[in-house]
Amino acid sequence: MKNTKVIFMGTPEFAVPVLEALLENTNVIMVVTQPDKETGRHHELLPSPVKKMALDYNIPVFQPVKIREDFQKIIDANADIIITCAYGQIIPETILNSPKLGCINVHASLLPRLRGGAPIHHALIDGETKTGVTIMYMDKKMDTGDIISSATYEIKNTDNVGTLHDTLSQMGKELLLKTLPSIIARTNNRLKQNEEEATYAWNITREEEHLDFNKTALEIFNKVRGLYPWPKANAIINGSEVKILECFIGTQDSNLSSGTICEINKDNFGICTKDKIIYITKVKPFGKKEMSARDYLNGINKEKLLHTIVE
Q1: Model pLDDT, residue 209
Q2: Which of 173, 197, 221 is the last residue of a domain?
């Protein structure tokens, strides 16, 4: 594989292990990633994690603002194969048709389930019991190309977005290394996706970060872990936004209206849901750092909190 000329397209931390594997095993001739982003109050421009790694290896980096309009450098590079992983833009058909071995994508779900930009979040939020990674050929639609290979992961109750992200990132790296020789030799499998089984994992909106305690305790538990450590679920307590970071489902049925804080304990506080009481163990009050529920409770009037309605 060392002589195979590869263009890699990716942006976030999730894609870094995949790029690392390609740098060690193929001839990466270019890395395409999103433009540097402004961050913080000083609007400092920071490169993507993928760009940082590419620069460490002295690989040329291309950062088109709109790849649909600015792609000639990719065509001119004359790569044997283009491999993408969480790049962040729709890739035009001209690019897809350019390399002789095609364009391959590493996607963080078991396609055709959870197509789209937030498959890791939605695997947890939607209550999936398993997920995984898929290596697929790209086509002009989003995540609809033929499947080459896949690997399955059984989701644990202790998983959140952070743990699942790291697990699937490594799985993607390992699966690509296992699959790539057959792609290069043109002996790989190629399975069309079943459109009837397709589901979608759209990017999380600000509105979707808000918790609705009229839902079941399991739905709330899944949403909390499906948004932690980023972008974090939130609720309004006594007029102030509080990020809800960790929780667990109690055994008792709710005996008050949904959203009512019905218990104040040493290390947690309980909120009534549609069915069970859910106990909050870690929070981030507005303008403060993450803290245990115990520390949060020690800093407020507990009696005033009891029977408050969480909005």
Answers
A1: 98
A2: 197
As for how many domains the chain has, the answer is 2
Q: Is residue 202 part of a domain?
A: no
Strand partners, 249: 278
* Interval 179-228: pLDDT, tens: 999 999 999 999 999 999 999 999 999 999 999 999 999 999 999 999 99
**Residues with Cβ < 8 Å from 262, sequence gap 6 or more?**
254, 255, 256, 270, 271, 272, 277, 306, 307
177 and 48 within one domain: yes
24: helix, strand or coil:
helix
If asked whether residues 100 and 191 sit together in one domain, one would say: yes
Least confident of 41-50, 145-154, 174-183, 260-269: 41-50
Q: Is residue 310 part of a domain?
A: no
Contact criterion met (CB below 8 Å) for 53 and 84: no
Average pLDDT of the chain is: 96
Is 79 within 8 Å of 5 (Cβ atoms)? yes
85 located within any domain = yes
Residue among 41, 182, 202 nearest 102 (CA): 182
3-state SS assignment for residue 120: helix
d(CA 105, CA 88) in angstroms, rounded, equals 12
- Domain, as residue range, for 144: 5-197
